Amino acid sequence: MWQQILPGLRIKIFLTVLLGVVYPLAMTGISQLFFPHQANGSLVTAGGKVIGSELIGQSFTKPEYFQGRPSNAGANGYDATASSGYNQGPTNKKLADRVKAAVEQFRKDNPDYHGPIPADLVTGSASGLDPHLSPDSARAQAARVAKARGVSLEQVRELIAQFTEGPDLGVLGEPRVNVLRLNLALNQRFAKPQAVAK
Amino acid sequence: MTSIGILQIAIFLALILICAKPLGAYMARVFEGERTFLHPGLRWLEVLTYKAAGIKEDVEQKWTHYTASLLSFSIFGFVILYLLQRLQGFLPLNPQGFGASNVNPDLAFNTATSFVTNTNWQGYSGESTLSYFVQMAGLAVQNFASAAAGIAVAIALVRGFARQEKKTVGNFWVDVTRATVYVLLPMAIVGALLFVSQGVVQNFGAYTEVATVEGGKQVIAQGPVASQEVIKQLGTNGGGFFNGNSSHPFENPTPLSNLLQMFLIFVIPGALTYTFGKMVGDTRQGWAIFAAMSVMFLIGVFVCYEFEQAGNPILSRLGLQTGATAGQSGGNMEGKEVRFGIANSALFATVTTDASCGAVNAMHDSFTPIGGLVPLFNMMTGEVIFGGVGAGLYGILLYCILAVFIAGLMVGRTPEYLGKKIEQKEVKMAMLAVVATAFSILFFTAVSSVISFPEKGYWNPPGAAAANLNNSGAHGFGEILYAYTSATANNGSAFAGITANTPWYDLTLGLAMWIGRFLFLIPLLAAAGSLAAKKKIPATAGTFPTHGPLFVGLLVGTVLIVGALTFFPALSLGPIVEHYLMHSGNLF
Q: What is the DSSP string of B530-555?
């Protein structure tokens, strides 16, 4: 019987070395060589400093920036060491209250927008780190951003159109706008928000 | 549903169909010990593994020895993984300085059980609990090992049907080694690099601290993710590097990576049906099973998609758009990512629970009641719709035994499958597996719904086991039912609102995983042993053909009816009543 059992320990030790050490080290080496940008987190720099990752959503609260979706990652949202959704079920009162409050807040912050509320805009993402908005959710905020920056609505809309990504390979996934990249483009294209007279 | 959504589902299934034959034929050669195109490059590694582990390649085992080897493989894996977690503070590659205090003994037991049984239920958040070393040398290794073990058992059962008058069913160690060296590892290497190209991280750096655009601080978790991500899917394990699992942009950054993830989950289970046909000498038998699986898959995915797209009427009353437009996906977007939208979230949820994967790219807890019932029911069938690597095939073969048994009862003839008489022993073993898993799900759910502990006590600090829920009412019951279903079915996905990291849940869920894995596997290996010893009887005019549409229909019927009869009462108390409550606007 030992003949059937002993290899269990030996093979596990061997596999731990092969699959647990050699394989990930080799993958890391090759990745760092061929895809250093992606392998290290697709970090974005502005003014010589790393200001985030294009894949990881970050918190925007000021009116002159497009704001991402509600996030339950960490206590204040968009904590990239604590990814999490709200995990509230469809009949949960907290969900209904939260979405209601988000809709009211959005209407208050965006008095010039009268259209319907896109489904993604006021609902929490799965990871809490969703870097995207749907194009409609970005357009719903365009008037507010334009006003806060003192530029025309048309200019902001053009920028959204420019930053709208279609489905991958023309068919996979949903059209989307990367919030961080769009906001960086705003800063680049238009007056710095600090310079805008209030 | 949108036409582009339906098209994506069709593309996905077409990819699995296209790969079934070439990969299935390749695996048949690997497990028959024939040379393949990868042997010149990889045979040395296979031989090295045998040498290192003291394995004799040409010795075959009886089913009892095969089972003993499987248990030894699993138990040593459990011990190593338990120790690695508890000792992580003394091990390298730990830039965040996690220690034993992050992993208490009952959590370490739960996680070690979870990864050894191919469940990958997670009572912890990866990014705030485990060091890079434990993730890659502990969890990722188990991802390979438990998948290889699943394939081995399936192959042993197939040999039971393929052979006649033999005492042995193969050699467990050889099967595990071949599954790892020729199937899992090469595919993992290619897949990992594809993931990195899409943006999945692969580094050993400390978490990156950045000053955000608005002047805040954000710390971004890093790690050797891609190498683990690929085997998490390919081995239908499902345990995420991060808490957000495949919804986390560093695990699953693009719709293309998302398609690759789902492809990796289904590709081996799909191909194994062909391997089965090839090994029993009649590929039509494999295609019949593939067809039955596809039918059940399509039913699930379209029900889930339909209800998720219809959305939550409580939220639409607040002014939310539920219809899809060119500029937004509509539907129930709570707990879903914009890049995946409704179609890819519903598809992923169906795929991950058809297979025993359990990775999620959307939070199932926030699905609509019927949208969430689909993953729940998929797991309750025993995950035989393509299923886990290996586990899906041996699970569906169990249902094949039941299906021909039922057909035999209807016409009053001793049932046969693939020329083997299905007799008392095989049916008993199949029923033992079905009853053990159903018991585990329903018994633990019932107990956890009512049991109460002293508040702030050891067993469950919140007090009653039902106090650990994030949702009340029918949905809260659904969280408990989902947890034990997921653990027993070795899936690992969750209605994640439940706080399951207390001694009560850690231990009972761990127990459910052991039951679900081994009280399923061992009866099937016993059946394999008994089948291998039997003589094949030639087909006659009275033999019920098991490769035609009639058998496919009977097989689908058996799976759905066994599942429905066993679990309908529990499902009515959970998602079904919740569906009506939601439509009448009740909140809890």
A: HHHTSPP----TTS--SSSHHHHHHH
